[in-house]
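URGENT: need a sanity check before tomorrow's submission.

F., can you look over the Class I SAM-dependent methyltransferase record below? I want to be sure the sequence and structure line up before it goes out.
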Amino acid sequence: MNIPVTWQLFDGCAVGYDEYRPGYPQGVFGILSRYHVAPGPIRSAVDVGAGTGIFSRQLIQAVPSIEKLTCIDANSDMAAIAKERSASFGGLDVQVGVAEKLPLPDRSCDLVAAATSANWFDRPLFYQESARVLKPSGTLLLLQNNHRYWESAFLDNFYSFQERHIPEYRRGQYSDSLGGYGKADFETELRSHSDLIAVERHNVEWRQTVSANQFRGYCYSMSHIKKAIDRSGAAVIAREIDALLERHQDSSGDVAVEWLTDIVLCRARP
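Structure tokens as predicted:
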């Protein structure tokens, strides 16, 4: 099987990624607990495309019934940081692997999750693998942290900056498994899948206040910014990020980031 290697865009970014990327709002876990109706509680789970384990650590803390959580990422740098930062979390195992061929037995998981990562996958293969490893009525949870750029002059300007330096990119699109950009309509895709049923979609809005330096670190953890640097040069990109922050930071040097966490859930057939 020819599996894309777009995950190599994150080589060398793992420490900054773990430090500057946001987590997920607590409302996600309330939605998950209300949705999950399998015969028993969530005891075995897998976080696919887990990066440095940010969501994995939140998940295992928020769902105390979990006995085993497998944290899988294709990038060995990311997996190494996930293993280091998650060492004190009992039951959390980190593996290097790909979404299109999960290293798990059939019907072994109560929950499969992908947090701001499924856009990178060959999703037909990932959905097939999710249906294979889920127990009957087990839950598939897909999350995407998106900026509410339509409500924020700061974020609107941030997206205009990205569009200038990455001509093929447009706001509202996601990086894809082929190294390009496109829509990622998980809800529609799952509604047409014969082995995954009861599709639901939810949104949680939230706000994060960060220092200008934290937002700068977040920028440099992004594959978009890495591409922009390759095309326009590090000095040009640094100047534009600095200018953007100077225009929008408050008197304390902070900026407000408006987030929308998009949540799509479905179940394996009973």
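My own read: Residues 60 and 220 are 28 Å apart (CA to CA). Residues 6-148+173-208+258-268 form a domain with the Rossmann fold fold (CATH 3.40.50.150). If you see anything odd, call me.
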